[in-house]
Amino acid sequence: MGLMDLCFTTLGLSFAVFILLFDYMKRRKRWNNYPPGPVSLPFIGNLLQINFQCPHVLSVKFGKIFSLQVGWKNVVLLNGLDAVKEALVQRSDDFADRPPFSLFDHLGYKKNCEGIMMARYGHGWKELRRFTLSTLRNFGLGKKSLDQRVTEEAGCLCSAFSSKDGHPFNPRFLINSAVGNVMCSLTFGNRFEYSNEKFLRMLHLIEEAFNIGAGIMSQVTLNMMPWLLYIPGPQHNIFQPYTDSFDILREIVKEHKETRDPAFTRDFIDAFLEEIEKAKMDPGSTFNENNLIFTVFDLFGAATETTTVTLCWALLYMLRYPDVQRRVSPRIPHSGCPCVFHEEIDKVIGRDRSPEIEDQVNLPYTNAVVYETQRYCDVVFAGVPRTTCRDTEVQGFFIPKDTIIIAVLSSVLKDETVWEKPHQFYPEHFLDADGQFVKREAFLPFSAGRRMCLGEQLARKELFLFFTTLLQHFTFHIPEDQPRPREDGHYILIHSPDSYELCAIPR
Ligand code: HEM
């Protein structure tokens, strides 16, 4: 071997040792009492050991609070009611941040212009969340109340189901259109026909963007290896549905600006434009036009998939558990079981008027079925990632600042120490001995604490009113010659049912 070769080999080896040492230092845990976890591999950490469908499976070995290494990022998973509640509720402030997400950095998200879902915890997020909550909650804006908008849409959804004349169909598309329309009504001031091309394209783009944002490529690969975005390749295609959605929203905002009457606020976009006007002199304000686009996009993304998928699960459970369906709405022939709850919808609401949100208190069984659907299908099964804003602790474990936190909601909704039948569909979880509805502390499908779901009230209304109106008008059957739909489904950020068909028979 020549001197030159020897030099290169020594240099190469030194470099390799340096890189391995650097990687080791990055992955080394220098804190006492940091949550335990599996041994991590150089550079990729525990990436190969993560079970994306059931992230809490390692808790069997490491306990309810355990750690993972994803690349050089420290991740801690919290499982079970006690750990999740202590972190998200009792130490709400410490766990209120979101991790940086390189996908969004490349889309132009920056301080005070990062929408609401992935916004870093701070003044901008607080201001925007307060504004969004009060604008959606006090929807005295425009001519119609929020309840009226949902009820009207539930009627349109029933007409669309009727048009299937009892033939088999997959309900997902119609439900998604109805749920999307409620958001359109709140944010743009009007609903669309389910066949409107612009509307369909927007729903399609949002779904595509949601799936991309939730996919392995953006969640893990681009976050771990953001340099991939600086070289050409198919990874750049992931931005298209986002930029196309932003273009559609930009056009809608432009129309609003042209037709806006400052004396009359029609919808969320008008209300936001008013805030932009007020904040004109403040260059650091969170109320700016790009942030309006990102916020509306977030609202659609957060609201449509979650609510649509939950309603699809609700109908799937009605097919799988006809006894439950019969108790909610009695027209399915049954074999002589006592009719304690059976006539609930017919008895309380009848046929001549639409269900209203006030009916909830008089429909304990129906309400329990909706709650149990959310518990059992655990749509957002691993929550949305959080980050610690400062050094903190949970259940005696030390968790340093900037740790990514996964509060596994599924482990709370199916916590074996809390629920009587955690792995069964059992509406009685939400009923007391007298058949009255009871709320449960471990019912956390919307998460908890500072960053908990902002749309809970709206989602609750939609789930109850859509479900009750559909059950008032139809009985649901599995189409002849089709198998009973499966209840395991698939997991990509949210837990969705595999596609299935049903027959909606008018009652
Ligand atoms: C069944 C329906 C829904 C479920 C299960 C659900 C669940 C969730 C969950 C688990 C989170 C993460 C909270 C956390 O980080 O701890 C979240 C956040 C969020 N949700 Fe929902 N959601 C639903 C419907 C909606 C609707 C209808 C809206 C729209 C109005 C909405 C808007 C949001 C927003 C904006 C956030 C981010 C909040 C923040 O970071 O401050 N969600 N949701």
Describe this structure in words.
- About 2% of the residues have low confidence.
- The radius of gyration is 25 Å and the shape is globular.
- Helix 12 crosses helix 15.
- It has 507 residues and is of the alpha+beta class.
- It has a 4-stranded mixed beta sheet. Strands 4-5 form a two-stranded antiparallel sheet.
- The protein has one domain: Cytochrome P450 (Cytochrome p450, Orthogonal Bundle).
- It starts with a helix and ends with a strand.
- It is built from 17 helices and 10 strands.
- The structure holds protoporphyrin IX containing FE.
- Protoporphyrin IX containing FE binds next to helix 5, helix 12 and helix 17.
- Keywords: Heme, Iron, Membrane, Metal-binding, Monooxygenase, Oxidoreductase, Transmembrane, Transmembrane helix.
List keywords for this structure.
membrane, two-stranded antiparallel ribbon, 10 strands, iron, Cytochrome p450, Cyt_P450, binds protoporphyrin IX containing FE, Cytochrome_P450_fam2, about 500 residues, alpha+beta, heme, 4-stranded mixed beta sheet
Number of domains: 1
Tell me the series of helices and strands, N- to C-terminal: HHEEHHHHHHHHHHHHHEEEEHHEEEE
Broad structural category: alpha+beta
| Major sheet description | 4 strands, mixed
The share of residues in extended strands comes to: 5-15%
CATH H-level superfamily title:
Cytochrome P450
Q: What does the radius of gyration come to? A: 25 Å
